[in-house]
Amino acid sequence: MTITRFAPSPTGMLHVGSARTALFCWLWAKRQKGTFILRIEDTDRERSTDEAVEVIIEGLKWLELNWDEGPIFQTHRFDRYKAVLKELMANDHAYKCYCTKERLEALREQQIEAKEKPRYDGYCRKFPAQPHADTPYVVRFKTPEEGSIVFEDLVRGRIEIQNSELDDLILARSDGTPTYNFTVVIDDWDMKVTHVLRGDDHINNTPRQIHIFKALNAPMPAYGHMPMLLGPDGKRLSKRHGAVSVLQYRDEGILPKALINYLVRLGWSHGDQEIFTTAEMIEHFDVHNINVAPTALNPEKLLWLNQHYMKTEPEVEVAKQLAWFMAKLGIDLTKGPDLAQVVIAQRERCKTLVEMAEKSRFFFEDEVVIDGDLTKKHFNREAVPALSDFIQALEAFPAWDKEVIHDALKAAVDKHGIKLGVLAPVVRLAASGTMASPPIDMMLWLLGKEKTVARLSDALAQLKELA
Ligand code: GLU
């Protein structure tokens, strides 16, 4: 059975690159009807925080990347790591190293001066010491000195590393805490992980981890290293490129489905298909089809996808997400129309939920604030008689529907022989405070009779004041 895992270190935000790794692991598990595990690699106590754990969990939940097992915390497994460490030492696969910081620093300097790659020279392996009982030590792995490690990377194909390139890595620090390369092996082994998919920043760790698997006689997973993500300018991705955290995308008004669709295409493709339902992704995703080449982020494409999903997702679903942004603006949703109807009215003209919330607040607020420049441009005395008739007609209607509103507007301009272009901007501006609002009949219908009549009457009074 296929078992994948997402194993973030909780040291910061949930990065877009990590989210892609999580998605690929999740998809491969789903495709193979396997299991997806969430493991929190929190052994680095100085850099790990509870807040970062929460951010990871919140981000995965928002993206609906639900895990079948976990979250499993490495800090809960220290006893197990200790037991395996003992076993490795007993079987002569690991040894205590008493080298001091000073010695290691001097060694490093010498090597750099001699233009060699800095590495541990195996001193304590060659000359086992019998120091005083409380001399501090680290535990190092005895990396085979001869031969090489070969593995078939799922993304990059065959990789071979000479063992002479690797030094004896530390398995446990002087305070007894285990290191990443060690815990990850024990966990992948105990959790029966079959596929390790992770960023290619880990590619140098893989041969080291394989050595530990071999020393433990444990079955090895298959490895696949994801290509690096680049900024839109083709440079290494960094904060200066704007949003790189999943929750930041959420806060900027991106729908989770749009972000998932965006992520899946970062380094993976299926023909030239751009839009994928979750079911299609699961059906077509294959770890063997992941690209080797680095992929650049494309914010325009994300916005395009977002608008696509805002237009095509059921309005009730979009409304659920929109409600969060309305709440952030302090809007009381009981004071206006059904939010799903607002989504229908607005979705053609908004690229993000933030934009949709901003453009829809006028439906719920008691009053609209109209920009002075806009009134100067669009409010005009010529519209007074028609506007007055339009208000009267609206007030007189027993029913409130789009068609009646539309007919009354037309009747008012026809009666006074003015162009629709004279009255319509006044109505639009008075009702919504902006010129970028939905079609007038739809907008007034959603706004309701009371607010419409009050806002138009205010505008009428202002128009009458104009010279
Ligand atoms: N904890 C590692 C990280 O966040 C990932 C380790 C792995 O996937 O093997 O980079």
UniProtKB/TrEMBL annotation:
- Write out the residue ranges of the motif 'KMSKS' region: 236-240
Residues that, per the record, bind ATP: K239
Q: Name one GO cellular component term.
A: cytosol
User: Where's the Glutamyl/glutaminyl-tRNA synthetase class Ib catalytic domain?
Assistant: 4-304
> Could you tell me the EC number(s) of this protein?
6.1.1.17
Motif 'HIGH' region: list the residue ranges.
8-18
The subcellular location is: Cytoplasm
Q: What domain of life does the native source organism fall in?
A: Bacteria
Q: Which Gene3D superfamilies match?
A: 1.10.10.350, HUPs
Pfam families membership: Anticodon_2, tRNA-synt_1c
Looking at the record, the residues that make up the Aminoacyl-tRNA synthetase class I anticodon-binding domain are 318-460
Which GO molecular function terms does the record list? ATP binding; glutamate-tRNA ligase activity; tRNA binding; zinc ion binding
Keywords from the UniProt entry: Aminoacyl-tRNA synthetase, ATP-binding, Cytoplasm, Ligase, Nucleotide-binding, Protein biosynthesis
Which reaction is this enzyme known to catalyze? tRNA(Glu) + L-glutamate + ATP = L-glutamyl-tRNA(Glu) + AMP + diphosphate
Q: Which GO terms describe its biological process?
A: glutamyl-tRNA aminoacylation
Q: What is its main location?
A: cytoplasm
Group of enzyme by EC: ligase
Q: How does it assemble?
A: Monomer.
- What job does the chain carry out? Catalyzes the attachment of glutamate to tRNA(Glu) in a two-step reaction: glutamate is first activated by ATP to form Glu-AMP and then transferred to the acceptor end of tRNA(Glu).
UniProt family annotation: Belongs to the class-I aminoacyl-tRNA synthetase family. Glutamate--tRNA ligase type 1 subfamily.
Q: Which PANTHER family match?
A: GLUTAMATE--TRNA LIGASE, GLUTAMATE--TRNA LIGASE, MITOCHONDRIAL-RELATED
Q: Please state what the protein is called.
A: Glutamate--tRNA ligase
